[in-house]
Amino acid sequence: MYNKNLDRSNLNGERPMTKAKLQKALNPKVGDYFPKRHGIDFFNHYKEDIKLFGEMNMQWFRMSISWARIFPNGDDKVPNEAGLKFYENVFQECEKYGIKPLVTISHYDTPYNLVEKYGGWKNPQLIEFYKVYAKLVFERYKKYVIHWMPFNEINAAIYSVWAGAGLIDDGEANLSQASYQAMHNLFVANAWAVKIGHEVNPKNQIGCMVAHMTSYPATCKPEDVIHATKEHQERVLFYYDVMCKGEYPKFMLKKFEKEKLQLKFEPADLELLKKYTLDYIGFSYYMSGTSGVDNGQKTEGNLVTFGKNPFLKASEWGWQIDPQGIRYTMNDLYFRYNLPLVVAENGIGVIENLDKNNEIHDDYRIDYLSQHINEMSKAINEDGVEVLGYTLWTPIDVISHGTSEMSKRYGLIYVDQDDLGQGTKKRFKKNSFYWYQKLIKSNVENF
After folding, report:
1. Is 345 a catalytic residue?
2. What is the pLDDT of residue 302?
3. Residue 435: which of 353, 362, 343, 348 has the closest Cα?
């Protein structure tokens, strides 16, 4: 449900995270509402939801394990068995419908104790806690899972520091220094996940998940092309280079030198990065933008703002719709790194309401997804790009990370819940559900 007159003043988002916001979150007043603390109640609806995914013919279900559900404080000596059992139940339910889980080990959920006690991911001690957690889930779910992503949108450590690195925006003397140090520690933890995951089960495929920021030069002026190239290096290639090639690219070392960032790179860290690189590349793709010396009009995007492209339409949230951009992105990644790709997130957020027949006729979503999937098909069949899989964001409506709104709906399944958590939480199939069901069936039969 969406009510334009609903008072959303007490919705609590988290970007940027300030000391004041954190205190409000830790000491909420009557009437404060934190949507992500409640979500869509998958905990009590997982059987119903996975049954719907099975009916949709889904082959993969990308999901996350909550670190704090397994180790509530992050540094606990003993895990929470009830939490471990819950995910085992989820995996068994997936198995019932022939769905393979694609599991993110840490999805924007560093246990708060690790922030309060250790200062978040800028502290290398978190690597050790993460190793314990990762090894446990690799071992516990060996029977059910072979496709893993150690971190969700790992580059959020730079662009959404609270979610990505457990850092408070106004809580660091030098936020850039803290963010890039956290980023390094996350890289090391990701490499450890590759190492441990392969040791636990040689069949494990362990990749990454990067929020991909596709952009084009704002004009063909050489200055704009150079600007776009440098931004592409820093916003995109940096992350893949470290995890795929196992080394820091020289353009980033130059940046650190220029900005006088004194990062701690232990020799053992660099050896680990070099030895334990990715099995595949996972990324999110929603939109593209432009980049230039003078970008002019700006528009919103995933984690960052872009220059506005006059040739593209945009969603209600200003995210520019560029199906051909996914083909461009896939070519850029595959032929630079020669690793198979997983499109981990792709979709469009829209305000939607059930009609009098409890239906949603979301032809706009079908159009968005079909165009992107068509371009992905061209990348595979015409360009020679190797793709392991595609998981849209998201098969079911969830709370938007960026805006903390339920009304920004991405799902093929509608959840009757508004921004303040009010509603029946009943699930309803959108038109896109039936379209996707037929699409998957056709692709599987013709594969």
Report:
1. yes
2. 85
3. 362
